[in-house]
Amino acid sequence: MDITTTDLGLAARVADLTKTYGTGSSRVTALDGVSVGIRRGQFTAVMGPSGSGKSTLMHVMAGLDAPTSGAAWIGDTEITGLSDGQLTVLRRRRVGFVFQAFNLVPTLDVRGNILLPFELDGRRPSGDESARIEALIARLGLADRLSHRPHELSGGQQQRVAIARALATAPDLVFADEPTGALDSRTSREVLDLLADASKRHGQSIAMVTHDPIAASWADRVLFLGDGRIVADKPRQTAEEISAHMLRAEGERAGAAQGEAA
Ligand SMILES: Nc1ncnc2c1ncn2[C@@H]1O[C@H](COP(=O)(O)OP(=O)(O)OP(=O)(O)O)[C@@H](O)[C@H]1O
Ligand SMILES: [Mg+2]
């Protein structure tokens, strides 16, 4: 496979990726031969029914989970086959991740959680970085919660801390798993604006899982997963177009299931 010419412009990609869990009758195929790239500087939304493999795909692309077969690259570094130590360093320097379950450190306050990526990298933010982090904190409405611990925050506030932490080091590549899932529409809009800005103004590459057609309509590109496969790959869509596509896909699934049952 020719990596040098075809993959310029891809911030991350996977080739023929499969991921299975369990064995025998409890075997689940979470990803089934997925090949896709996340384009540099683009905001990509990933949609699909619950259980279609979205989180698994994000985890494997970010090097948080190993595939059963296939390969994954971050930039032009193949990450499948790297040691845990090498992966940790690569991720720390280049990747931000917003988990579906936030993953905040319970013993650290909000500021400590946001600064954790620096802490783990054994350095302090520079003056410019500090200014950017303060701006993120203000924009995400966290300024008056900085000395609170995660359990003292609402779900939406915790989610915003996780977003601030993922963006704190201005990583090249950001994976966000339903980053607006716990947010009201005004706060969602702020987060989406932040992610869109990160790609447009700062050239960061963003991959965002969402169930919300309005959130996905902010993206430059929308990938649809179904049963562990990429079933559609579309340029920017309106929320109405995305909803229509999802309804059609669900109808087809229901139809196929009826066909199987008949
Ligand atoms: N650790 C695990 N062990 C066994 N099965 C798993 C594990 N993680 C995920 N799966 C299965 O893999 C499939 C894909 O899961 P995944 O979490 O990627 O879905 P998703 O598209 O993110 O769904 P949701 O929208 O509900 O978050 C599901 O059938 C799930 O049950
Ligand atoms: Mg998920």
Q: What's the short story on this structure?
A:
This protein is of the alpha/beta class and 262 residues long. The chain has nine helices and ten strands. A six-stranded mixed sheet has the order 6-7-8-3-9-10, sandwiched between helices. It has a four-stranded antiparallel sheet with strand order 2-1-4-5, covered by helices on one side.
Characteristics of this structure?
262 residues, alpha/beta, Rossmann fold, six-stranded mixed sheet, four-stranded antiparallel sheet, 9 helices, 10 strands, 39% helix, 24% strand, globular, disordered N terminus, binds adenosine-5'-triphosphate, binds magnesium ion
Topology:
Elements: H1 3-6, E1 10-21, E2 28-39, E3 43-47, H2 54-61, E4 69-74, E5 77-78, H3 84-94, E6 95-98, H4 110-120, H5 127-139, H6 155-167, E7 173-177, H7 185-200, E8 205-209, H8 213-216, E9 221-226, E10 229-235, H9 239-261
Parallel strand pairs: 3-8, 3-9, 6-7, 7-8
Antiparallel strand pairs: 1-2, 1-4, 4-5, 9-10
Bound molecules: adenosine-5'-triphosphate (ATP) and magnesium ion.
Task: Describe this protein's structure.
- The protein has 262 residues and is α/β, with parallel strands linked by helices.
- It has one domain: 3-Layer(aba) Sandwich (Rossmann fold), CATH 3.40.50.
- It has nine helices and ten strands.
- The protein has helices at residues 3-6, 54-61, 84-94, 110-120, 127-139, 155-167, 185-200, 213-216, 239-261, and strands at residues 10-21, 28-39, 43-47, 69-74, 77-78, 95-98, 173-177, 205-209, 221-226, 229-235.
- The strands form two sheets. The chain has a six-stranded mixed sheet with strand order 6-7-8-3-9-10, sandwiched between helices.
- Helix 4 (110-120) packs parallel to helix 6 (155-167).
- The longest helix is centred in the last third of the chain and has 23 residues, at 239-261.
